[in-house]
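Hey everyone, long-time lurker, first post.

I ran two proteins through the pipeline my lab uses and got sequence/structure pairs for each. Pasting them in order. The first:
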Amino acid sequence: MFRLKSYDDRLQGYTAADVSPHLAFGTFNNSSRGRGKGSRGRGRGNYSTRGRGFQQQFLSLSSQSSGERPTCQICGKRGHPAIQCWHRFDESYQYSEAAAAAFSALHITDVTDDGAWVPDSAATAHITNNGQRLQQSQPYYGNDTIMASDGNFLPITHIGSASLPSTSGNLPLKDVLVCPDIAKSLLSVSKLTKDYPCSFTFDANGVLVKDKATSKVLTMGSSTSDGLYKLENPKFQMFYSTRQVKASDAVWHMRLGHPNPQVLQLLSLSKAIKINKSTNAACESCRLGKSSRLPFSSSEFIASRPLERVHCDLWGPAPVSSVQGFQYYVIFIDNLSRFSWFYPLKRKSDFCSIFIKFQSSVENLLQTKIGTFQSDGGGEFISQRFFKQLQDSGIQRYMSCPHTPQQNGMAERKHRQLTEMGLTLMFQSKTPQKYWVEAFFTSNFLSNLLPTIALATKISPYEALFGKVPNYSALRTFGCACFPTLRDYARTKFDP
């Protein structure tokens, strides 16, 4: 009986309208999906009436064209008559006055938009009710509409592009639909993630939009009391000048270019600056920009016998090879007497062989063993062959730390003495540079004969080591003319 009455109503509708029901097929096209009034309803593609004939669509068209918005007597929703209700043939559906009252209160014009974008994972397009938000727009003449959760069909007036403010600029929003009747501006999550490589993270506190490449937060939003997520515009921090204002000593320290603390104290006493708080905090920037090495204290070691400790260092390469082809030299210094031995080298790899000869010579000369060998960490001093030689001879090894030549200061100072004296001898005698080995050997010989303040008694290293006063009568000026007697080597009696 119920179905017969429904069929009769449809026939009467066709007669009253006096039009062909087939004209209703060209009335509606696909509608964009979206959420109206900030609710969770989804729009549908076609205005499907689930196979209930054609008159429902025609009646909906006539009601919208007349401007009336009827209320359904079956479900209580506004926007469609009872003959168009989905629940019309559902006998198990129960009408609820409370639900009807709730839906009837959801008038689109009763809710205002605060301008914030609401991210919507169900929307397939960006939708806004404010055409002024579009940067480029044009009128929309299509037949697509937006269906809200309460059954209303919302028209689209314009389409264009907008932008979403972020911390790194503005994110472009393409194909934004303008719907004046929608309550909230909906941001399509699927469309934004396709147009821009970003990701959305939703939790109880809010929503984050991050750049996939850099993981940087582009924009963020909070969760409202009604369960909506709203994207907020990035907050800009305001900075102001604090010049001529009291500040802490740390702030004045940075203002004045990181001066010494005594400078700050002097300026504060003279009332030139006003310090309201003394932190006495260590400045990390000063540690990084002004750090310097602490002074090395003098060694307190005093040898009790010759060769108890031998200092060694290698010099070179020389800018000019000597006449014999030498490019390096090595010196050995006795800690007790400051006496030094000079050995020229052609290659650094010759050092171990020279040391074996030196060890055999001085130990036989002085009748004592080398106790400790001190040097830097050069490659010639850390070779396996040299290390084995020290182990086999029972010699203890001291090595200075990297980039700290001060720990081997005795050998470094001897280098300076030999090079300065040797170059001076060459300049005085106008000797070619290829004779630098002879000049340096002479300077080492003379330094062993000269008194030194390094020894407490201010005697010469030669006297301290051998117990004899050196004889200076045999010395001649370096580079002076020499006339040797060659009579015994002459080939004829007429040769000079």
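...and the second, right after it:
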Amino acid sequence: MLVVHKGVKSLFKFTKPIQITLFISLVLVIVLLYTKVSFLFTSLYSLLQLIFVPVLLALFCYYLLRPIINVMMKFKINKLVSILSLFVVISALLVWFILAMIPMLQKQFISLVNNAPSFFVTLGHEITKLQQHQLFQTIFPEAEFKLTHVSNYITQALTSINNYMGNIVSIVSNFTIVLVTAPIMLFFLLKDGHKFSSKIEAAAPIRYRNDVREMFEEFDHVLSSFIVGRVLVNIILGVLMYVGFIIIDLPYALLLTTIAVIANFIPFIGAILSTIPIAIIALVDSPMKAVWSVLIILAAQQIQDNLIAPYIFGKQLNIHPLTTIILVIGAGKIGGIIAMIIIIPSYLIIKIIAVKVYNLFFREKWEQL
């Protein structure tokens, strides 16, 4: 009977190439089945989209506010009291921002919209002057490049923005959901967020619990360093740019700085995207002001990349620039702006998991090959 059992078992023992082939075939079959019944997952996908942004915002604020909670607890303040006190302070700051800053931004935005017709007329004149300049004719021959095409690109961009604004009802409803659910999620994260990793650690096999705990500690450290560091770096960048814009008397300085700070959360690409409208608006005022505005942005970016970011991040988030560019462009193609913002921390987490799995299960076998 034992011989028969071993014989049957040997029949189902596949070689490595066959195992790999079967695995690939299984994956392809699963993908094929998903394409056939994808409509069944539409509701689930819509639900995940709805809760993804509040969860993302709550996690962002959790890592941003947790250090403050920890400092308050060191002064023997109860955790619940610390959280509620922080919520009151943040609410007061938001009210101040809405009453003091929003009207200024709104005034500049409305002024920009109202002046748009004359803005484009002036921009057309400036583009024509630049096109007739000898230096630009040398660099950009008319047969190869026409600066007048810029007006067409701007018109297309404004059309796209108008189309998005047509979905204002959906935007407002989604914003309301985020505004209601994100603070609730944030409260429970600040109160019980430390228990999440402990429960997963307890569910892991005993021999791997230390590794699971170490991995979650790395997750926590990397995300905290990235989020807090990114916010500090962007605030400093915004201050540097705003001071420079005030010095050169750039129109809509506060509005353009705010846009630049928000866009800068997208690595590399955000800096380029925010520079274009700033340079165009400065060009309407004068070509020299456009040059100065670009120089201010470049100087602020250099200070950020070479002095501020290395001091804040150190070597903890050391990612090669080429890797960052590839990740951001790929994420933008697949998932849009939100994917571009979260791709770097996601990459860092996946990297930690991959290194831990390799060290636990594959390193010894690989080194013995």
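Reply from user beta_strand_b:
Welcome! Quick read of the second one: Confidence is low (pLDDT under 50) at residues 1-5. The chain has three domains: 1-36, 47-191, 193-369.
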